[in-house]
Design goal:
heterodimer, A: 393 residues, alpha+beta, Peroxisomal Thiolase, Chain A, domain 1, 9-stranded mixed sheet, two-stranded antiparallel ribbon, B: mainly beta, 5-stranded antiparallel sheet, 3-stranded antiparallel sheet, 1 helix, globular, binds zinc ion
Chain lengths: 393, 141
């Protein structure tokens, strides 16, 4: 218990999610930051720290200039574009606990749908004399994998899915049942969530089965939705959160992991049916003074549906190899034993690089979700690469 | 048929020149003897800088595979469907590979594979892996 983090998320802000925002990433970012401050009851001049992903195009200095932030004392970046969503919160919390800053904003703005899309090969390939060439030193799309046509994260996820199927002896039909149960249930949650890009589009199991196969065994409905928009969240010390009277949600534990082969894309990791170190859940829950059985709901970074069963097993929320039974019996659905991705997830709310995954955990613990469940604690994770436990204040 | 090439500046590196000469070589440690991939100037097992190149046995196990049906680049439209594999070499290293263009095979995670190097042009060849001929499965020979 003594190791618990001593910070809280006190404000959330976001723009609408859309296929074409019609405005710059800077404008999106500042809209989201101002909305997060308003939600927290704080002012621009309260901000003295910023954290962001290295892949974000809008730098800290650009934000300082645009908003006229008087004195930024701390800024930090975490690698990649979404892998480290919880790592960014860990970094903000560490800065606050070390006295480097007192009010840190984590922001992300992207025109990922109308701009260069993460799921397209153009991001990593060049056309030369009518052929295709890679110059990438690291996956996805690097010189050792692109020549075989392995180019985008969605294809790597298909490899994780088939590795899982092979490891546990699940046939094509069993994989369809499991992944379909995830996609269909999350769409149901999205249908109840007005923020979701697919709020108005229902998905039945029959429609899921008929969905176009992108890369076996994954279908179109197993993939997240690239999205334009911006999100921001405000992090302060728990002490300050209590004095603000804001609807705080506490960060109980947060951390990051890289191990040999896990970056890039787990191609060279020891296992591909499991994507986190064996002790990841025990360590994280231990820091929060909890155990896996104390977790009431899970927000899993679902760039594809396959991330969900792997994460629940890796963190010990369900047993190894139990995912098929858990999902096909609705354990993750409304009224299930462990509601998962109650906003619809990246699959059906939108691919907002983990900030919306965190935000739904915060909303649930504030009692403000559109699909509210009874919960005191939430796990948020991206396949163990970064993870955290949130607690009701 | 579009096969994606590493840019020319990479093709002078030993991994690629050995393949162009017809064999798969692995970056290997001269001190502890273990191989590693992708190539690295330091052995991740014993941290020796004394690394070199050794021919691979070509024997491997299938860790995973996927049939890519959706082309993520317009120039790949004629290439789909194609099969990407993740293979574990006998030397203990992982590689991304695939089935040679146009070739079909029944794949199963855990099955034995063997390497076949196919040259696409004088400077550029790739190591593909096909099901190994095994006793009791004469039709795969
Ligand atoms: Zn060595």
């Amino acid at each position: 218990m003594g190791e618990r983090m001593k910070t809280s998320i006190v404000g959330l802000g976001q723009t609408e999610f859309s296929k074409n925002s019609g405005r710059s990433e800077l404008k999106l970012a500042t809209e989201a930051i101002l909305a997060a401050l308003e939600d927290a009851g704080l002012e621009v001049d309260d901000i003295d720290g910023l954290v962001r992903y290295t892949w974000d195009h809008t730098s800290e200095a650009t934000i300082v200039n645009a908003l006229g932030i008087k004195a930024l004392k701390y800024y930090g970046e975490t690698e990649f574009g979404g892998v480290n969503c919880c790592g960014a919160v860990a970094q903000a919390s560490a800065a606050i606990e070390a006295g480097l800053a007192s009010c840190v904003v984590f922001y992300r703005a992207l025109n990922a749908r109308s701009g260069v899309r993460f799921g397209r090969g153009e991001r990593v390939l060049e056309e030369v004399d009518g052929g295709l060439v890679t110059r990438q030193p690291e996956p996805p799309g690097d010189i050792y994998s692109a020549p075989f046509g392995l180019l985008v994260p969605g294809q790597h996820h298909a490899l994780y899915a088939q590795a899982y199927a092979g490891h546990y002896g699940l046939d094509t039909e069993a994989m369809t049942e499991m992944l379909g149960a995830i996609a269909v249930t999350q769409r149901g949650y999205a249908n109840g969530n007005p923020r979701a890009l697919l709020h108005d589009r229902t998905l039945s199991m029959e429609e899921y089965r008929a969905g176009r196969v992108i890369s076996t065994p994954l279908r179109i409905y197993d993939y997240c939705l690239e999205t334009d928009g911006a999100m921001a969240m405000v992090i302060v010390s728990r002490e300050r959160a209590r004095s603000l009277g804001a609807k705080a949600v506490d960060v109980l534990a947060a951390g990051q992991h890289i191990f040999p082969g896990s970056v890039p894309m787990y191609l060279y990791a020891a296992d591909t049916h499991s994507l986190a170190p064996e002790a990841v859940g025990r360590e994280l829950f231990g820091k929060a003074g909890l155990s896996a059985s104390d977790i009431d709901l899970a927000m899993i970074y679902d760039a594809t549906s396959m991330m969900v069963p792997i994460a629940l097993e890796d963190f010990g929320l369900i047993g190894r190899g139990e995912a098929h039974g858990f999902f096909t019996s609705g354990g993750h659905g409304p009224g299930g034993t462990l509601p998962v991705n109650t906003h619809g997830g990246l699959l059906s709310e939108g691919y907002f690089h983990g900030l919306n995954t965190i935000a739904e955990g915060v909303r649930q613990l504030r009692g403000e979700s559109h699909n509210q469940v009874s919960a005191e604690t939430a796990l948020v994770t991206l396949r163990g690469a970064s993870s955290m436990v949130l607690g009701r204040a | 048929m579009t096969v994606i090439r590493p840019s020319d500046d990479y093709l002078d590196q030993p991994f690629w020149t050995h393949l162009a000469a017809g064999t798969l070589h692995l970056s290997s440690c001269e001190d502890c003897g273990k191989a590693h991939h992708p190539p690295s100037p330091i052995c991740p097992h014993c941290r020796s800088f004394n690394t070199g190149w050794k021919p691979a046995s070509g024997r491997a196990t299938l860790k995973s595979f996927t049939e890519v049906r959706h082309p993520v680049h317009t120039l790949l439209e004629p290439a789909v469907p194609y099969v990407v594999t993740l293979v574990e070499l006998e030397e203990g290293v992982r590689m991304v590979s695939g089935l040679p263009p146009g070739q079909e095979a029944e794949l199963r995670v855990g099955m034995a594979l063997e390497c076949t190097v196919i040259r696409h042009d004088p400077r550029f060849a790739l190591p593909y892996f096909l099901p190994a001929p095994a006793a009791g499965h004469p039709d795969t020979a």
